[in-house]
Design brief:
10 helices
Amino acid sequence: MNISSQHSAGPRRLPQQKRGQRRVAALMEAAAAVLAESGYDAATMTDIAKRADASIGALYRFFPNKLSIAQALRGHYTKQFHVRWAPLKAEVKHMTVAGLAERLIIAMADFVDSYPAFLVLLEVSASTQGSATIRRDLLRRVEGLILARSPRITRAKASRFAIVTLNIMGTLAHVYAGASQRERPVYVNEFKILLARYLEARIGNGAVARGRKKDEDILAAC
C-alpha cells in the first residue's frame, strides 16, 4: 500500500498543556519504533498504541490515521536536521574539503542512529509531499554548505554537486542501516573517502595550503 493512497490528514489539534505534549511525544516515539521495526505498510495504529502503552482511543484522539503520524514525524525530523546542521554552515568556510565530507557523512550516520524510522518515512514513497519536502530541505542545506565553502562557483553547479553529494549520503544511510554494529564504522570510513574525493574534484582541495595536509590526515585515518 502506498502512503499516498490514504486520505491525507495532519495531526489533530495538538495539546497546549505539558502533560498532553508529553503524551503526544510518547505516542510519536512509539510510532517511530514500530515503523523502524515493521515498516510503514505492516505497522498498524493498534501496534503503535500497544507500544506506547496507550488505548487506541487515546492514539486516535491526537492522530486520525497512520499518515498523520508519519507527517508529524517527518516534521520533527526536519526540525532536528536544522538544529544539528545549523552550526555546520557557520563553520564550513574554514573547513578543508575532506573535513566537510567527514562532517556530512558522520552527520548522516548519527541521524540514522538517532532516528531509525527516518529512512522508512523517506522511502515510503518518493512522490509524496512529505518525502519531497524533506528532500528539498536537505538539498537546500547541502547546496548552502557548498556555496559557503566555495562561494565562487555558480548556484547551478552548487545544486548539481549537492544532488550528487546527497545521493552519496543517502546511499551511506541505507548501507549503514543494514550493516551490523561491527561493520558500520568501516562503511562510514569508506563513504568519507568517496565523498571527499568527489568534492575535491568539484570544489577544490582546501582553501589554504595547510588544509591539504589536514585533508591527507583525515583520509589517512579512514
